[in-house]
Amino acid sequence: MCIGIPGDTIEVRNKQVYVNGAAMKNPENMITSNDTMRKGMAEPGGNLFPRGNNGWNRDNYGPIRIPKKGDVINLDAQSYDAWAVIIQREGHAIRLGENGTFLIDEKQVKSYTIERDYLWMMGDNRDNSLDSRYWGFAPVDNVVGNALFIYWSMFNPPYAPGEGDPDEIQKFNIRWGRILNGVH
């Protein structure tokens, strides 16, 4: 579900989402566990977007501003990890040059102008949703429609500690009560 539009600032504090500083109403059927990763504790695996934010985790994330077309981003060696993916997704080759300079399409630059509008997407399963916290901003022009209903829903319970092989497919439980329900 889209929770943020171009120019909005998103933050997650103890699993509560804030948009532009205001707490967002949680989805009716939101799924969370009782345990919360503390603020400043890095996400296990370090696979959050953008790279380089080691103190963020899925439960305490941001704040992060959603870029909009025309935004000018100042670039330096410290911001490379945060902006390289977006610049590449906009169709440019990017690399760090000598002395921490940015090279975009082999031209040295100190700033970059965002070419597209972006959205921020989050699922209703906050603890187990690979959403914008993991893959980043979604280009507005990639959105092709609105969700009307839940097509498929399942829960993959974890093994109890010390049981089974975590690399194998675990037992899947179909959540029949959610299938074909309308999306709010």
Per-chain topology:
Layout lengths: L1 E3 L4 E5 L2 E4 L2 E2 L37 E5 L6 E3 L5 H10 L4 E3 L5 E3 L2 E3 L1 E3 L4 E4 L10 H4 L2 E2 L14 E2 L17 E2 L10
Antiparallel strand pairs: 1-11, 2-3, 2-5, 3-4, 6-10, 7-8, 8-9, 11-12, 13-14
Task: Classify the beta-strand content into a percent band.
Answer: 15-25%
Fraction of residues in helices? Answer: under 10%
Major sheet description? 4 strands, antiparallel
Number of strands: 14
Structural class: mainly beta
Strand arrangement, major sheet: 4-3-2-5
CATH-defined architecture of the largest domain: Ribbon
CATH class of the largest domain: Mainly Beta
Number of H/I helices: 2
Shape: globular
End-to-end separation in angstroms reads: 9 Å
The arrangement of helices and strands along the chain is EEEEEEHEEEEEHEEE
Rg result: 19 Å
Uncertain runs: none
Mean pLDDT: 85
How many discrete structural domains? 3
Protein architecture, described:
The chain is mainly β and 184 residues long. The chain folds into three domains: 1-68 and 118-142, Umud Fragment, subunit A (Ribbon); 72-113, no CATH class; 146-184, no CATH class. The protein is 8% helix and 24% strand. It has two helices and 14 strands; from the N terminus they run ββββββαβββββαβββ.
What are the main properties of this structure?
184 residues, mainly beta, Umud Fragment, subunit A, 3 domains, 4-stranded antiparallel β-sheet, 3-stranded antiparallel β-sheet, globular
Quick take:
This protein is mostly beta strands and 184 residues long.
